[in-house]
TrEMBL record:
It is found in: Cytoplasm. NCBIfam families: lysidine_TilS_C, lysidine_TilS_N. The keyword Transport does not apply. Belongs to the tRNA(Ile)-lysidine synthase family. This is tRNA(Ile)-lysidine synthase. GO terms for biological process: tRNA modification. The lineage of its organism: Bacteria, Pseudomonadati, Bacteroidota, Flavobacteriia, Flavobacteriales. It comes from Epilithonimonas hominis. Keywords: ATP-binding, Cytoplasm, Ligase, Nucleotide-binding, tRNA processing. The gene is tilS. ATP binds at residues 34-39. Residues 364-438 form the Lysidine-tRNA(Ile) synthetase C-terminal domain. The N-terminal region contains the highly conserved SGGXDS motif, predicted to be a P-loop motif involved in ATP binding. One of its GO terms (molecular function) is ATP binding. InterPro entries: Lysidine-tRNA-synth_C, Rossmann-like_a/b/a_fold, TilS/TtcA_N, tRNA_Ile_lys_synt, tRNA_Ile_lys_synt_N. It catalyses: cytidine(34) in tRNA(Ile2) + L-lysine + ATP = lysidine(34) in tRNA(Ile2) + AMP + diphosphate + H(+).
Length: 438
């Protein structure tokens, strides 16, 4: 029978945990325990090691009485060892989908784990992923062309989640459970081949091990080397970004587009991926996009501005929809701008406007530019499109997105903050005058 060279035992487990964390005895943990052999061995290792931990279990009620028996194994362990036990029972209110049950279940359990971690102020979430899980994940990611990050597999320590059993095979975990008389439950649904992971587990991995009895051992070494290569590439990407950077602050990085386009495909791909743009087709669009083009993901906006790539945190780019508006208060004839917006406006300068309240329809509001907007800038003859005004002021694409327009209830533009107000609404009467100070 195949045997992985690192035999699972208590001392080896504790040493591996010490390599992952500084002074693990002083940390607190939330263990994700399903009742299966992997997580029950994990719970036993933490209990015998004397660590401070809680246990979380989710009963999905997908396997009738078997689900309840899984829960009982976990709750009995917690009762025996006086470990805090957190249970989530899935109900009809959880809107279980007909498809993608695995993704839904994963999102649900990690949301539950994070809630407990925050409520109980625990340092780490701990899962029982092992070497066989690592191999299955590698094969899945290999089929997706996921790049070196995908091929590096499941991380041992990332985002407050640690996986101390990744160096041990399933056989070693079974042996440890048998030798230490650890009670666990077998999930018979894992024997089915309905899901891709189960197909790999039952059809592909056994064949690989027939070809080479040391396959898992060699795979473990390969994953180690791939992770070293990933670390090297990440450092190279950091160095390249420093070279390519034209300017940056905590919310924005500007990169020279021409120099970026001359880098290798790998470096270009990894830089874009650093900002959440993972699609290869998207990378080609970035390289050929015209000035003014924008790309979005959940965290960043990428703007093409002449020979620049501007990466900005979406929270800082004025991601408010153009039809949204903010109603302003008037106190003692002064128009009140919220301090956070006042700080944003002051990036472009200050202003002191006098507005005749008889010439505007109250309430006044702030909004972003819309297509076709125009106004009559004070000191100029005639009307002017806001887009033309922006161009004349030589505002960058990103700056344009930060500009606020002061409008009245009829959506007439009273001024462009903080540049110019509309001459139609200026005041020459102290009795009807409203002031705006930025």
């Amino acid at each position: 029978m195949f045997r992985h060279k690192i035999v699972l035992n208590l001392l080896k487990f504790q040493k591996l945990l010490e390599q992952m964390l500084h002074q693990p005895q002083q940390k607190t943990y939330l263990l994700a325990v399903s009742g299966g052999v992997d997580s029950m061995v994990l719970a036993d290792l933490f209990q015998v090691s004397g660590f401070d931990f809680h246990i979380a279990h989710i009963n999905y009620h997908l396997r009738n009485e078997d689900s309840n028996l899984d829960q009982k194994v976990v709750s009995d362990f917690c009762e025996k060892h006086k470990s805090p036990f957190h249970l989530y029972e899935v109900s009809k209110n959880d809107n279980q989908p007909e498809n993608s049950i695995q993704n839904w279940a994963r999102e649900l359990r990690y949301r539950f784990f994070r809630e407990i971690q925050e409520k109980e102020n625990l340092d780490y979430i701990v899962t029982a992923h092992h070497l066989n899980d690592q191999l299955e994940t590698f094969i899945i990611n290999l089929s997706k062309a996921s790049g070196i990050r995908g091929l590096s597999g499941i991380p041992k320590n990332e985002n407050g989640i640690i996986r101390p059993l990744l160096g041990f095979s399933k056989d070693e975990i079974y042996d440890f459970a048998k030798e230490n008389h650890i009670e666990f439950r077998e999930d018979q649904s894992n024997q089915k081949t309905d899901y891709l992971r189960n197909k790999i587990r039952h059809n592909i991995v056994p064949e690989l091990q027939k070809i080479n009895s040391d396959f898992l051992t060699n795979f473990s070494k390969s994953i180690h080397y791939i992770n070293q290569a990933k670390d090297f590439i990440n450092q190279s990407v950091d160095d390249k970004i420093k070279i390519l950077k034209i300017n940056s602050d905590k919310n924005q990085i500007i990169i020279d587009k021409q120099t970026f386009s001359q880098e290798s495909e790998l470096i270009r791909y990894e830089i874009l991926k650093r900002f959440g743009f993972n699609d290869e087709n998207e990378m080609q669009k970035v390289l050929t996009a015209q000035t003014g083009s924008s790309f979005f993901n959940s965290e960043y906006q990428l703007i093409i501005n002449r020979n620049e790539l501007i990466f900005s945190c979406k929270a800082e780019v004025g991601n408010q929809k153009s039809e949204d508006s903010l109603i302003l208060e008037i106190i003692d004839n002064e128009i009140i701008i919220p301090q956070n917006l006042k700080n944003e406006v002051q990036e472009f300068g200050n202003c002191f406007w006098k507005i005749d309240k008889q010439k505007v329809q109250l309430p006044l509001k702030l909004r972003k530019k819309q297509e076709g907007d125009l106004y009559f800038p004070i000191g100029m003859i005639g009307k002017k499109k806001i887009s033309k005004f922006f161009k004349d002021e030589k505002l960058s694409i990103l700056a344009k997105q930060k500009i606020w327009l002061l409008c009245d209830a009829d959506d007439r533009i009273v001024g462009v903050l903080p540049f110019r107000q509309d001459g139609r609404f200026s005041s020459d009467n102290l009795e009807t005058e409203l002031t705006l100070k930025v």
